[in-house]
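If you are new to this repository, start here. Below is one unmodified record pulled from the training split, so you can see the exact layout before writing a loader.
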Amino acid sequence: MSAPPALAPLDDFLETEIGTDETMLDLIEHHVRHNSTWHFTGDACQLDLDGGTVTVKHGYTGASTTLPRADLRALLADLRTLLTGALG
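And here is the target side for that same chain:
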């Protein structure tokens, strides 16, 4: 399964920057929950928190997508469930 083209930067971010690394997931989840603004630059993508929105930009293609912070929190929670089920 793959994300629609409009969400490709988010798909790449989840796969490239987090993957199966629970420590990275912890870091990003912490900032998404507790910081009103935050900037993260990973290997291939950037993430910008700005109040209630999150923008993910692919560093190589320049494509970006913006979504509500609550939606990213839900996706990260789902990813955590998948990781702990697969690894635990």
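Two things worth knowing about this chain: The chain is about 50% helix and 25% strand. Strands lie at 37-41, 45-50, 53-58, 64-68.
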